[in-house]
Design brief:
Length: 169
C-alpha cells in the first residue's frame, strides 16, 4: 500500500474511528469507499492478512443486511460433486444508516462476510437479524427497502510503503 492524504471530510471519520482504539493503539490508515445500488451485493469473502485483524464500516445512505458465513472447508471443493446451492448465512446483522460496524476477533479471522443482492429485506420472526433488539427498524413483518448505500471501510494496514522507496532507483 502507498500512503496518500485523505480529504478532510474523510479524515474526520478516520480520526473518530481511530479514537476508539480498535487497531492495537495505532491509528487507522486505510479507507475503502464503496457505493451499493439497490439490488447489489458482495459475495461472501474474508479480508485477509494484509490488514490488522479488525475492520470498521460506517454505513451512509441506506441500510443493508450483512450476512456472516462459516468458512469453506477443503471437502467443499470436491470437483466430482454436483453443484450445490450457495451456503446459508450463520447469522445476519442489520447495518442501519449512520451506523458503525466493527468486526474483530473470530468474526474477522474465522467467518466470511457478504451482502446478498436484494432490493428488499423482509423480516419475520424467524429471520430477525442478530442485532434486532438494538435496531429500531428491525421489526417482525417489516419490509426494509434498500436505497443507495455508501460504505466507508476504515482499517489499519500494518505495512505501508514509503513514497521515497518507490522513487529511488
Amino acid at each position: 500500500m502507498v500512503p496518500e492524504r485523505l480529504p478532510l471530510w474523510l479524515q474526520r471519520y478516520v480520526d473518530k474511528v481511530s479514537d476508539l482504539n480498535l487497531f492495537g493503539g495505532l491509528p487507522a490508515n486505510h479507507v475503502l469507499v464503496n457505493q451499493y445500488l439497490p439490488g447489489e451485493g458482495i459475495m461472501p469473502h474474508e479480508d485477509g492478512p494484509l490488514y490488522y485483524p479488525t475492520v470498521s464500516t460506517i454505513s451512509l445512505g441506506s441500510h443493508t443486511m450483512l450476512d456472516l458465513y462459516e468458512p469453506r472447508q477443503p471437502k467443499d471443493d470436491d470437483p466430482t460433486e454436483q453443484p450445490r446451492p450457495p451456503p446459508r448465512p450463520t447469522t445476519s446483522l442489520l447495518l442501519e444508516p449512520r451506523s458503525l460496524l466493527v468486526l474483530r476477533d473470530t468474526a474477522y479471522t474465522h467467518l466470511l462476510h457478504g451482502i446478498a443482492a436484494a432490493a428488499v429485506d423482509p423480516l419475520d420472526t424467524a429471520s430477525l437479524p442478530l442485532n434486532a433488539a438494538a435496531c429500531p427498524s428491525a421489526l417482525p413483518g417489516a419490509r426494509l427497502v434498500r436505497g443507495v448505500r455508501v460504505s466507508l471501510t476504515i482499517r489499519r494496514v500494518p505495512r505501508v510503503l514509503r513514497a521515497g522507496l518507490l522513487l529511488s532507483k
